[in-house]
Design goal:
globular
């Protein structure tokens, strides 16, 4: 949901990308003249059984389209790729490399979910807005 104080419109080109690899919805938020942010907020979702490499190909198309528009980007969602395991899982490493090569960096870097089997970081926010002043973190709670 985007606060009504902001002017925004659906990112039609991105929302019309034909992919079954992940679910998404995007909007362009106009902060000031010449300062537009593309937001995929809470809606980038790769189903647990979905192919990471096919999802990466589709994400690459999205990121390329945003890069061509020269907009900043925030991608938030359930990527179902545990970025804590990037050093031991080649598809997750490829996912992170794709994000990094498109100048999208995670704002959450510590585990977000804990269980008796260990911890994971599959829900994240990636952004190209590293110079902006914002804070991120994980709220720990017993409700899943």
């Amino acid at each position: 949901m985007i606060d009504s104080i902001f002017k925004f419109e659906p990112a039609v080109k991105l929302n019309q990308l034909d992919t079954e690899d992940f679910e998404s919805i995007f909007a362009n938020v106009f902060l000031s003249p010449g300062d537009t942010v593309t937001v995929g907020s809470g809606t980038v979702y790769r189903p647990p059984g979905g192919s990471i490499s096919q999802c990466n190909d589709s994400l690459d198309a999205v990121l390329s389209a945003v890069k061509c528009s020269r907009n900043k980007i925030f991608l938030a969602g359930d990527f179902n790729s545990n970025v804590l395991n990037h050093d031991s899982h080649c598809e997750t490493d490829a996912f992170l490399n794709l994000m990094y090569s498109n100048k999208c960096f995670p704002v959450i870097t510590c585990p977000a979910r804990f269980s008796s089997n260990g911890s994971t970081l599959i829900d994240n926010i990636f952004t190209s807005c590293l110079e902006d002043n914002y804070q991120s973190g994980v709220l720990i709670n017993n409700i899943s």
